[in-house]
Amino acid sequence: MPSSPRLLLFILALVFLVSFVQVGLISIAFDKLGLSPESAYLLLMCTLIGSLINLPLFSLKTDSTAQIPPELTRFPLIKLLSDTGKMMIAVNVGGAVVPVAFSLYLILHNPLNPWQIAAAVAVVALIARTASLPIPGIGIGLPMLIAPITAALIATILDPQHRAPLAYISGTLGVLIGADLLRLKDIRKLGAPIASIGGAGTFDGVFITGLLAVLLA
Question: Of 7-16, 99-108, 172-181, where does mean pLDDT reach its minimum?
Fold first, then answer.
């Protein structure tokens, strides 16, 4: 994604999260996950800053019918990818690396059943795969409330006692798998020269999905 849209999404995410903080929802969500206020805000800042960082993984050959918007070709890397008929697949630090790392932390520090984790993640991934839509020139879009509601419901059904961490884990990992990894083939046809797993970071829906899932659980 070009720098301008990514910066805009970063600003929107910051405004959105500051609003959350003002009404205490961030504190409530992280408290349910067992984090201290200091740890919660450290995680939040890592997510926001990381949302601006994409780590390249590999390249894919794009569909021959995909059209890259002309205004994007002024960027050297994007022009090079366009000329060679390839697109770069990257992973977003704030939208993928941080949520996955925190999900692993929750798995290690909560008495969760591995089979229930797998089932919850699979359900959210299936819903995310079904509800997500390709957006030409950008990537994959997913309505914000579908994944967190699904994660909260399935976590409450499977493990009411530990529904908060299970909701976060299934919400974040489910969206990453269903809306990003399972959609890689579709991305080839979108004309997006760079596709990032985790999207633009926070506002891609991964981190926000986790928070909303915890609040709803």
Answer: 7-16
Residue range 7-23, pLDDT digits in tens: 555 566 666 555 555 44
Dist. CA 5–CA 69, nearest whole Å: 14
- CB atoms under 10 Å from CB of 80, counted, come to 13
Q: Give 214: exposed, middle or buried? Use CB within 10 Å, 0-12, 13-18, 19+.
A: buried
**The amino acid at 167:** A
List beta partners, residue 90. Answer: 56, 196
Give the 3-state secondary structure of residue 169.
Answer: helix
Q: Can you give the residue ranges of every domain in the chain?
A: 3-216
Q: Where are the beta strands (DSSP E) in the chain?
A: 54-61, 86-92, 133-135, 139-141, 194-197
Q: Is the Cβ–Cβ distance between 211 and 48 less than 8 Å?
A: no
48, 87, 91, 157, 165 from 153: Cα distances, Å:
27, 37, 28, 6, 13
